[in-house]
Amino acid sequence: MIAVLQWTTLAICALIAIARIPSALRGENRSLFYIFTLMTLAILLSIEAPYVAIDQALGGINLANLLLRFVIFATIYVLGVKVTRGFGAEGAYRLITGKAGMGVLLVISVAMVAVFFMMDTAGSSAGMVGPARMNARNGVLVEYYGAAGRAYPAFVSLALLPAMIVAVRSTLPVLIRVAAGLLAIGGVAITLSLLFPVFPRSWDSLEFVINYTAVLCFMIGLALIWTARVRNGRNTAARKTSTEK
């Protein structure tokens, strides 16, 4: 079931990214294309078979997981810029792109890389399951590494949350309000992922649900924003044609 959800999500995300190529080539809303392309890569790197194949090509020491973390950072940054601009959330935009946001990104990135190289990471294993089971020290370090990897997405999500709540309560078109609601849910899911270190090991399935709730909410929310934009463009064009007649 989990594998089916992973491959289905990958396929949908890839198809949306491909559908955005013509618009991106025309210079229209390229950020959406970048977001869906990065999300596709992130999902690919979270699936066991492609992860192992890619990591083996990188030396078999789980560098693919480190790559995955930075792909997620890039995705959430571009998404944060896109959403804050789209919803006019100037405060959140300055927080994410300003000195504070860049400082948070730098500190978290350095900490994450440092912890990664403190571990014995030999043996390609999606989710760092293998290294975590090597010994007690590695197990603790993997938890710290995972927490660092989730910290920046949580920071951006919390920065976006107030603007999304305002949008849901606004008089914006229904599609936009639904999209804002989904983005808010995705942000809450990412924030909840910070609690993973205190979850019992038997809750692995819940962790998977939380992670994919975030992915699916962000993916569908952005797709709805795109749909609303296309619909609005068509309506504007139709009104213009009608007026000219």
Quick one: biggest sheet? none
Range of helix content: over 70%
Give average pLDDT, whole number: 90
Spatial shape: globular
Q: Strand-residue fraction? A: under 5%
- As an assembly, this protein is single chain
| Class from helix and strand fractions | mainly alpha
Number of strands: 0
- How many DSSP helices? 11
**Order of SSEs:** HHHHHHHHHHH
- Intertermini distance: 55 Å
Describe the structure.
The protein is mainly alpha-helical and 245 residues long. 82% of the residues lie in helices and 0% in strands. The chain contains eleven helices and no strands. The longest helix is centred in the last third of the chain and has 41 residues, at 204-244.
Outline of the structure:
It is built from eleven helices and no strands. With 245 residues, it is mainly α.
Please supply descriptive tags for the structure shown above.
245 residues; mainly alpha; 11 helices; 82% helix
Write the layout of secondary structure elements.
Elements lengths: L1 H18 L1 H5 L4 H17 L1 H10 L5 H24 L3 H8 L1 H20 L10 H6 L1 H33 L5 H19 L11 H41 L1
Helix pairs in contact: 1-3, 1-11, 3-5, 5-6, 5-9, 6-7, 6-9, 7-9, 9-10, 10-11
